[in-house]
Amino acid sequence: MGFVSCQKEEVSPKEPITPPETPSEIPHQTITLDAFIEELSAQSEVHTLWNEGDAIGVHTLRDNASRFIKFDLYQGAGTANGKFRGELLEDEKLSTIALYPYQEDISMEGTNLSFHLPDKQDYNRLNTPMIALVNEGENVLNFKHLCGFLQFTLENVPPAATTFKLTTSNHIAGDCMVNIQEEELNMQITRNASYSITVDLASATPSSTYQILIPVPAGEYASMSITLTDITGNELQNVSIPGSNIVKRAAVLGIPPISCDTSTPEEGTTHYKITNGVILQNTGLEVSKLVSILPVPASNEYQIIKNLSVSDGTIYNITGTENRYVRSIIHDAPAKGNSYTLSETFDVYLRTFRTDFGQIKEIYPYDENNEAYKQFLGQRGEYVAPSNPDIMKIGDEIWHSSTDILDYARKCYEYVASHYKYLNAYTGIHPLKKILQDGGGDCGNLTSIYVSLLRYKNIPSKHIVTVRPDGSYHVWNDFYLEKYGWIPVDVTAKNSDPDGDYFGYCAGDGIVMSKDLYFPIEIDESNTMEVVILQNFFYWYWYSSGNGTVNGSHFVRIL
Question: Tell me, what's the pLDDT at 292?
């Protein structure tokens, strides 16, 4: 390159300064690359193919400086073998690696490749991250997948559905990094992590059935749920995917077909249209910030939730659980003497059923790798304490007279119902030590005794926390039986009705708001708090002056 320079003192002030000549353009070279996509291993036949408009980022070196150049697909759309074309500077060389899809912010630092895995996906376009090593002197790229795949088949999808959202217990989108020298290509999400990916269904041909393939990092997923929403953001359907699921790199995990039918559910359910909310009344403060939280019910074995909408805020999933909540943050409100309401409206179909124990012919040992086994054992703060001396003593006495874990579970149910009183209603959940000293407690506290007895003998067990359509509260218990699933037990109902049988029985009168105890709640961007029980509402407020307080009251209305 040559430049012409001039010095100011050599030019008369009356003469124009001659601009430097335009540098001669550096010659370019056109490079063509053949690119092959790694075949997926899958139970069903699934292919990832090049699409019109695809581009890859190819790493290059020139004078020890590196960059990624965009190479565009010009042949092979609809196949796994594509041809890509790009232009390099004349003295620029292909370097280490190529990445699909091309992104403006790809970077290399040593052997670490950084890129972005988006949290939004077009139904008609699957931009799954793949990398290929560039072999010097060869123009052939063999792309390997960086993710595994979840394949969802949705049936009976309502016409109003425009968005599909997958939420998992793991980070599945964000800024990623992979060491290109590692054989396993272990991809890590390092920043801006998200637990969810949304798919735009509006871009698809309208249909009642969709097949959705979503790339996610390899690993074990303790929980997953899908949500369908309409164009206004209202939730049409929420479905939890049962069990723990393992996703492997370059493999497809097919999820059993999911029916998204929004018509009236099966017989045996009771339907309510509910508004659940909290009213926060400011009696005399200059409020600068108000945070309010409500638990959000999800569809599960006890209920079907449809047509969910919230008056304000954003819905968040609690990592590693089926539970979720809506959080609203407002500033400089409500004014003195005014109130603020956060509410959710939904249709709920409550199921009534009784477990048929006659079908249980054999008790199987627990699979200790099962997430249900691992997650619902052990201590939960002061509230579930399997190692409490009284629990251990009672548990050992019952265990010695039991034939198996099912018999033990039934005898613990009968013991708690007959040996402890129903006390202190509507005073909240208490530490187990206090419950035992008092000789009882309300439904949540009696359940804590039962859960502690079962966990003492390594039987997975959890609280089922509900709000009834009439606005009252109730808690019962679930315990897990290998190969048979979760079984409901209501020790409080047995306490009130000693002649009744509530072992394996669900009355279908409570809307499940959460399962288990102790959850991390994000108050705002800077503060997280562990709450013991997620049943009605929480709120926090900041104020600058004034006399008074902000009072909260819960309400449930049948519409």
Answer: 97
Q: What is the CA radius of gyration of the chain?
A: 30
Q: For 362-397, how does the pLDDT look when each residue is reduced to its tens digit (9 = 90+)?
A: 999 998 877 767 889 999 999 999 999 999 999 999
Burial 244-277 (b: 16+ CB within 10 A, else e): bbebebbbbbbbeebebebeebeeeeeebebbbb
How far does the chain reach from its first CA to its final CA, in angstroms? 78
CA dist., res. 61 & res. 392, Å (int): 68
Dihedral pair phi/psi, residue 503, rounded to 5°: -90, 110
- 271 close to 349: Cβ distance less than 8 angstroms: yes
Where are the strands (E) in 360-510, listed by range? 421-422, 440-441, 461-467, 473-481, 485-489, 505-506
The DSSP secondary structure of 506-525, one letter per residue, reads E-S--EEEEESS-EEEE-SS
Per-residue tokens: 3: 């430049």
Q: Where are the alpha helices (DSSP H) in 75-172?
A: none
What tokens appear for 504 in the block?
């394996």
Residue 526 neighbours by CB under 8 Å, 6+ apart = none
pTM: 0.74
Measured in whole angstroms, the distance separating CA 356 from the mean position of its chain's CA atoms is 33
Least Cα distance to 43 among 128, 155, 150, 127 occurs for 150
Distance CA(30)–CA(85), nearest Å, equals 7
Per DSSP, the three-state class of 453 is helix
Residue whose pair of structure tokens reads 């949540």 in the numeric block? 444
CA distance 305 to 535: 16
> Do residues 72 and 118 make contact, with C-beta atoms less than 8 angstroms apart?
no
Q: Which two tokens stand for residue 345?
A: 């409206």
Cβ-Cβ contacts under 8 Å for 223 (sequence gap 6 or more):
168, 169, 240, 241, 244, 320, 321, 322, 371
Residue 428 CA to its chain's centroid (Å): 28
Q: Which residues pair with 251 in a beta bridge?
A: 41
Which region, left, alpha or beta, applies to residue 450 given φ > 0 means left and ψ of -120 to 50 means alpha?
A: alpha
CB atoms within 10 A of CB 298: 23
